[in-house]
Amino acid sequence: MTKQRHAFLSLMILILLLGLAYLVLVKPALDARYAFSEQWESLQFEKQKLQQTIAKSESVLADIEYLKQQDREALGFMKQQSEALAAAQLQQLLTDIVTKNDSSLISTQVLETEVSESFSTVTLSVNLRANVQSLQNIIYYFYDNDSVFLIDNISIQSKNNALTADAYSTLDIRFELSGFMKREASL
């Protein structure tokens, strides 16, 4: 072998070893650094989003606590100041929901208000005509309301024969609807 050829082969082996060292040692380190850098930026972005969310949630929690504190005393109670106003509001509420459900309100009668130490009970005696679906909607409305309502002494009669009755048959319905008012503490 000639000296020149030996130098050329040595140079080629050196270049091959350097290329192999780059592929085995340097490139994985550079790739890992690049991936780490991208992950770092992603985590910084997520951190910023979380800090904004935390700031918003703290504000919302403070608002919720303020509203809870304001309404803690009257939770579930009607907001009217007197039994007469509460009865009138209850009648209006009943009239509105019955009308919205294509039913007929035959009569309402305000019964004697029951007074206890901490609340008053305003009760209406109700007589109406509705089909099963409308009755379900009316009852659900009073069940799913901010104020607590009680439907008691319910009586349902069908005008039709039980064999020919269907979900759209008119029913005569009587019940007592009660709402509750928080009593003011006496001095």
CATH architecture assignment name of the largest domain: 2-Layer Sandwich
Helix/strand class: alpha+beta
**What count of structural domains?**
2
- Model regions low in confidence, pLDDT < 50 over at least 5 residues: none
CATH superfamily grouping of the largest domain: Ribosomal protein S6/Translation elongation factor EF1B
Name some characteristics of this structure.
Alpha-Beta Plaits, five-stranded antiparallel sheet, 187 residues, 3 helices, alpha+beta
Description:
The protein is α+β, with helices and mostly antiparallel strands and 187 residues long. It has two domains: 1-74; 83-182, Ribosomal protein S6/Translation elongation factor EF1B (Alpha-Beta Plaits, 2-Layer Sandwich), CATH 3.30.70. It is built from three helices and five strands; from the N terminus they run ααβββαββ. Strands 1, 2, 3, 4 and 5 form a five-stranded antiparallel β-sheet that branches. A hairpin with a 3-residue loop joins strand 2 and strand 3. The chain is elongated and about 125 Å long.
Summarize the structure.
The chain has 187 residues and is an alpha+beta fold.
Note the topology.
Elements lengths: L2 H69 L11 H18 L3 E7 L3 E2 L3 E12 L1 H12 L5 E10 L12 E12 L5
Antiparallel strand pairs: 1-3, 2-3, 3-5, 4-5
